[in-house]
Write a structure and sequence with these properties.
With 394 residues, the chain is mainly α. The chain has a single domain, classed as Growth Hormone, Chain: A (Up-down Bundle). Helices cover 80% and strands 0% of the residues. Helix 1 packs antiparallel against helix 9, helix 5 runs antiparallel to helix 6 and helix 7 runs antiparallel to helix 13.
Length: 394
């Protein structure tokens, strides 16, 4: 198989694998409405349960990345998805919210494998002038996974119960575990003799503050993204009085538009020859659109639903840019660990969004919560590096 064809095939498998993992991680988010309105859980309690998969991811992302650096992507992705499927089985048969949360935690720990390893596939198989596009496509995985969860989980859970809804991530992760084990080919690596003395000993975190700053920026930018993905469905149902199915379709459609937007931003970064310049534009746009959403919601204008779609699209646009910057700076010997660290920071923030923003909504309402989320991308702007940095061996 020619390398170009193989590169796109591996990218497709990486996208599918991470999408399946994201469906599992996102599933509890779309149970919040049911748990709050019918089971009596507070927003903070339901938000904490929804955050357990991301807490699990935080615990293992760097470890999965280090393993991918050592043994390659194929078995990290396939093995992680198989373990995620087992966790889904446990969640289906769990007795009580504590056990359900435990299996969500374990599944998140396993699903982190696809986040850490699929980024290495892009860096390994694509040249620099195509990485923005390729990473933008790879970063479609998260909104696509949320889209699948949004249009399936609340509807199935509402009609057949929580356990029935969890068969969706079970089937997807089990299927992709088999496909990836058979079909993924690890990207070619520089021979060890050429890298051991230089690349492996060169810790990119000591070379400059670039990686630390990108990690910090991404932590701040993830707050509006997870505020909308965690509580968007609840907001549409409880504040705008949408039916759950219609609300799920809107959330899913917005996530799909956001996925396409990630590709567009990636192509833009290839065209302008910079990752950090478009990243700064996205941060300003995210702050602005979240403030507009807060104002429209406070005024109870119906146009808030339109702005909600725009806000989701903008809030997810930064991920591919940041991931590409991290991978290019880290170099081939550190990419797995650096991408794992990148995701770790993001999911620590995401884990706090569920209970934190949930409590804020309960105390002050949705407009104040949206305005608070808008502060984070505004704070991120001065932290974004002025110029790109790249490892000299990429």
């Amino acid at each position: 198989m020619p390398n170009a064809v193989r590169a796109w095939s591996m990218l497709g498998l990486g996208v599918a694998a991470q999408t399946a993992g994201t469906v599992f991680v996102s599933a509890p988010t779309f149970l919040i409405t049911l748990l709050h309105t019918e089971r009596g859980l507070s927003f903070a309690e339901a938000g904490l349960l929804a955050a357990t998969p991301t807490i699990g991811m935080v615990l293992t992302l760097i470890a999965w990345g280090a393993l991918a650096d050592r043994i390659g992507e194929r078995w990290v992705i396939a093995g992680g998805l198989a373990l995620t499927a087992l966790a889904a089985v446990g969640a289906i048969f769990a007795d009580g919210y504590v056990m359900l949360g435990l299996f969500f935690l374990l599944g998140g720990m396993a699903a982190a494998s696809t986040n850490a390893a699929s980024g290495r596939v892009v860096v390994g198989w694509f040249p620099k002038n195509r990485r923005g596009l390729a990473m933008g496509i790879r970063q479609m995985s998260q909104p696509l996974g949320v889209t699948v969860a949004a249009v399936t989980i609340p509807v199935i859970a509402g009609s057949a119960g929580v356990a029935a809804a969890l068969y969706v991530p079970l089937i997807l992760t089990a299927l992709l575990a088999v496909v990836c084990a058979v079909a993924i080919v690890n990207p070619p690596r520089t021979p060890a003799s050429a890298t051991d003395a230089g690349v492996r000993s060169a810790n990119p975190y000591r070379a400059s503050s670039f990686l630390w700053r990108i990690h910090a920026v991404s932590i701040l930018l993830v707050v509006p993204q997870f505020t909308l993905s965690t509580f968007g469905l609840v907001w549409l149902v409880t504040q705008l009085h949408w039916e759950p199915l219609a609300a799920g379709v809107l959330v899913g459609s917005a996530q799909f538009i956001g996925a396409v937007g990630r590709i567009g931003v990636g192509v833009l970064s290839d065209q302008v020859g910079s990752r950090v310049r478009p990243l700064r534009w996205v941060a300003w746009a995210a702050a602005a659109v979240m403030l507009v959403l807060a104002a429209l919601d406070a005024a109870q204008w119906g146009a808030a639903a339109v702005v909600f779609v725009i806000a989701i699209t903008v809030s997810v646009a930064d991920n591919g840019l940041a991931f590409t910057s991290v991978a290019e700076m880290a170099g081939p010997a550190w990419a797995g660990r650096a991408l794992g660290a990148q995701n770790t920071g993001q999911f620590i923030a995401a884990s706090l969004v569920g209970p934190g923003i949930g409590a804020l909504i309960g105390l002050a309402g949705f407009p104040i919560a949206f305005a608070a989320a808008a502060l984070c991308p505004a704070l991120a702007v001065p932290l974004i590096p002025r110029a790109d940095a790249e490892h000299d061996r990429l």
